[in-house]
UniProtKB/TrEMBL annotation:
Active site: 95, 167
Organism encoding this protein: Desulfofundulus kuznetsovii (strain DSM 6115 / VKM B-1805 / 17) (Desulfotomaculum kuznetsovii)
Keywords attached to this entry: Cytoplasm, Gluconeogenesis, Glycolysis, Isomerase
UniProt-recorded name of the protein: Triosephosphate isomerase
Involved pathway(s): Carbohydrate degradation; glycolysis; D-glyceraldehyde 3-phosphate from glycerone phosphate: step 1/1; Carbohydrate biosynthesis; gluconeogenesis
PROSITE patterns with a match to the protein in the record: TIM_1 (PS00171), TIM_2 (PS51440)
Function statement: Involved in the gluconeogenesis. Catalyzes stereospecifically the conversion of dihydroxyacetone phosphate (DHAP) to D-glyceraldehyde-3-phosphate (G3P).
Family annotation (InterPro entries): Aldolase_TIM, TIM_sf, TrioseP_Isoase_bac/euk, Triosephosphate_isomerase, Triosephosphate_isomerase_AS
Localization annotation: Cytoplasm
Gene Ontology cellular-component terms listed: cytosol
Enzyme class: isomerase
Length: 253
């Protein structure tokens, strides 16, 4: 059984004060919740304070990005060692906003994935097609290439332990969600590909999330699909009520 992972990607939202206040509310809202894993991924500045606030709770911590090197002269960057020490379990890698605005390639993502695994962080590796690619019928070709390149050179055991997030770019922050059937189809395709890359057992274990305008109203149907093992939530993860409702939708499924 794959335990669904509901992760909130806060992007560049919330000061330290706002983050701590939010997490206090979320802890209360999710007290006693079991059977799903819940993670929050605040901006770097709030990680330390949020980590302290989460101690002893059923919510875990993730970061939104990292550098591939352990340390070095890379002004403005954060290393996997730093994230691990602060208490992160997850790190989002290759988010489409990183690819689009910061020029991250699949090769960059691959190097970061390997560095994350080396330091005991679980990567949440994001893939997804743009609107024109979907409309041209190239979704599987684009997503397939991203998966193959971003996860190249990993063993079956390594693949089994990570998380892939299918996030169609046209559904991010637009209010436009992939239909549950479309999302299921791509997630199942990714799982097949991972079976080719790392074997059936790895494919059976790896968790594949869906992301892109997930909200309380559509969460249950998306999370009810057999190959959707949780959600990577942007906007709706910034409010306790909406994120809590999405977590509860996963519990029902
Ligand atoms: O990019 C996302 C999560 O990583 C999705 O963002 P929205 O949920 O705001 O569409």
């Amino acid at each position: 059984m794959r335990i669904p992972l509901l992760a909130g990607n806060w992007k560049m939202y919330k000061t330290v004060t706002e983050a701590v206040e939010f997490v206090r509310g979320l802890k209360e809202a999710l007290a006693g919740v079991q059977g799903v894993e819940v993670a929050v991924c605040p901006p770097f500045t709030a990680l330390y304070a949020v980590a302290r606030e989460l101690e002893g709770s059923n919510i875990v911590l993730g970061a939104q990005n990292m550098h591939r090197a352990e340390e070095g002269a890379y002004t403005g960057e954060i290393s996997p060692v730093m994230l691990k020490e602060i208490g992160c379990r997850y790190v989002i890698l290759g988010h489409s906003e990183r690819r689009q605005y910061f020029g991250e390639s699949d090769e960059d993502v691959n190097a970061k994935v390997k560095a994350a695994l080396k330091h005991g962080l679980v990567p949440i590796v994001c893939v997804g097609e743009r609107l024109e690619e979907r409309e041209a019928g190239h979704t599987e070709r684009v997503v397939g290439a991203q998966v193959r390149r971003s996860l190249a050179g990993l063993s079956g055991t390594e693949l089994a332990g990570l998380v892939v997030a299918y996030e169609p770019v046209w559904a991010i922050g637009t209010g436009r969600t992939a239909s549950p059937e479309d999302a299921q189809q791509v997630n199942a395709f990714i799982r097949c590909l991972l079976a080719e890359m790392g074997g059936q057992e790895a494919a059976r274990q790896v968790r594949i999330q869906y992301g892109g305008s997930v909200k309380p109203e559509n969460a249950a149907e998306l999370l009810g699909q057999p190959d959707i093992d949780g959600a990577l939530v942007g906007g709706a993860s910034l409010k306790v009520d909406s994120f809590g409702a999405i977590v509860r939708a996963a519990l029902r499924e």
